[in-house]
Specification:
This protein is 31% helix and 11% strand. The chain contains 14 helices and eleven strands. It is globular, with a radius of gyration of 23 Å. The two termini are 38 Å apart.
């Protein structure tokens, strides 16, 4: 069967519809593309995903060895081995925005990371500060610049995700945000995968914001109980499309419906907690409860669920941009529930970086921090591989994406902002030449002054260009020299 045998063309806005007005987006199908020769390549839309972990990294355990194309991945980056030809490892870029204003290092790092702008002078704040007005980002973040350029009508502009909330006065400080709509406009983050699923794949009307009160949680629980399985509601429409589609599209639609079913059941099981193996379904509903975003033991499952949802949102073209960070700078996530080093039982992440020369070769907690960094590498690899498994014409969704992983600082113990770790997966549709290790400045050594090194602002100019944005600067002009050479 050829594409011409489909009864009619499908709009890229076509959705599966069921009773009650339920609608689910479809992946990019052959029937949605312009008629073309069979041999022509399918470009597909581009996507951006920014992943941030805080409190720095163990330098020599992260840094590859070898040359630009014959490099060997480090222990931290070892999970990316199967993706080696599709990544760019970038070293030697400074966080100049944070160096411009060091009055609060743990705030300056996240605030300027994606905005390329320093904090405003004199308004650092925190749980022990008397200031009543915090300095958030002073400009638009790179993810929002991209979203404005590639969003199509009807899509969500972007998704902002935070895994694991901090408690009390630490929760909503500037160190908890990297995405900004503009000056002092941090974008709210979603921390509950059940809520995000409802936002993406069910009707948004009357869906309450998940808060910390029993009333808010009960409202979400009632919503889940009242709704039948989403796929059952659209089953007939799904079956009709499969019967009419060409073989390539038939496989995509079937996989799409199967994955949404699996995701729905996984999230329901996640929300309801341990059970005898039964999960909430439309035929035999159980009474789920919202997963606790404060419980550190839930971090791995929430991380996986969030990444699955973002990948599906990309595949359905519900949005093309997302960011995700764990808690915030100064976070005290304890990894003892799933990582083995004894240090995790003694301290949370932030305190580990400050105990006993943690970032030196002989620090007592070096192995614990290396284990944390490696775990983040595994999460990055999981999401990148997820996108790489989704075919878009003769490419994969990863090929048509930029998946970025970085941290808010270099060394957590001394709060240094030189030589941030950057890994990019995907080539933005062939724009970047991947499979390389690029070094742009002195490694593991701080350059005096905020404007003397090469900053991440230049990388963000290159990423803007990859998404078709004709830009020569980003963020604070004094920190930007133009696009990074040698990436394309």
């Amino acid at each position: 069967m050829t594409i011409n045998s489909i009864p009619k063309r499908l709009s890229r806005r076509h959705v599966l519809r069921g009773a009650g007005g339920i609608a689910i987006g479809l992946p990019l199908l052959e029937a949605m593309l312009p008629r073309r020769n069979a041999s022509a390549a399918t470009a597909g839309p581009l996507h951006f995903f920014g992943m941030v972990h805080n409190n720095g990294y163990i330098d020599d355990a992260w840094r590859p060895t070898g040359g630009e194309t014959d490099f060997t991945l480090s222990s931290t980056l070892a999970p990316l081995e199967s993706l080696k030809k599709k990544i760019l490892v970038i070293a030697g870029l400074d966080h100049g925005a944070a160096k411009m204003n060091r009055q609060s290092s743990h705030q300056a790092g996240p605030v300027g990371l994606f905005t390329g702008q320093p904090m405003a002078t004199g308004v650092a704040c925190g749980p022990t500060s008397s200031n009543t007005r915090c300095s958030y980002g002073q400009g638009v973040s790179i993810d929002q610049v991209i979203a404005a350029a590639i969003r199509r009508p009807g899509q969500l502009r972007s998704l902002e995700i935070r895994v694991s909330k901090q408690k009390g006065a630490y929760a909503e400080q500037p160190w908890s945000y990297v995405s900004y709509a503009g000056k002092d406009q941090p974008l709210p983050q979603e921390d509950d995968p059940v809520r995000l699923f409802s936002r993406l794949f069910t009707n948004p009307l009357d869906v309450p914001k998940t808060g910390d009160s029993a009333t808010d949680k009960a409202a979400v629980e009632r919503l889940l109980l009242q709704k039948r399985s989403i796929l059952d509601a659209v089953k007939s429409d799904c079956t009709r499309l499969i019967s009419q589609a060409c073989p390539e599209d038939r496989q995509k639609i079937d996989l799409h419906c199967t994955e949404i079913r699996a995701m729905e059941e996984k999230l329901t099981q996640l929300a309801s907690g341990p059970s005898d193996g039964a999960t909430l379904s439309c035929r035999k509903p159980l009474a789920p409860s919202s997963i606790d975003p404060y419980d550190y033991a839930n971090v791995p499952r929430i991380t996986t669920a969030m990444m699955d949802l973002v990948a599906m949102a990309f595949a359905c073209d519900l949005t093309r941009v997302a960011t995700m960070m764990w808690a915030g700078s100064t976070n005290q996530i304890r990894y003892s529930s799933w990582l083995s080093d004894p240090g995790h039982r003694e301290y949370g992440h932030h305190f580990l970086t400050h105990r006993g020369g943690a970032t030196t070769n002989t620090g007592k907690y070096r192995n614990a921090l290396m284990e944390i960094d490696n775990w983040y590498g595994k999460q990055f690899a999981y999401f990148a591989n997820k996108l790489d498994s989704i075919k878009v014409g003769d490419r994969t969704m990863l090929d048509n994406s930029v998946v970025l992983w970085t941290s808010d600082m270099h060394e957590g113990n001394n709060h240094t902002f030189n030589d941030l770790p950057f890994v990019l997966a995907g080539s933005a549709g062939g724009y970047f030449r991947t499979g390389r290790y690029k070094v742009y400045g002195p490694i593991n050594r701080e350059i005096a002054g905020f404007g003397n090194g090469i900053n991440q602002n230049d990388l963000f100019v290159s990423i803007q260009n990859a998404f078709g944005i004709n830009a020569t600067t980003f963020g604070e002009p004094r920190l930007c020299k133009g696009p990074l050479p040698g990436l394309t």
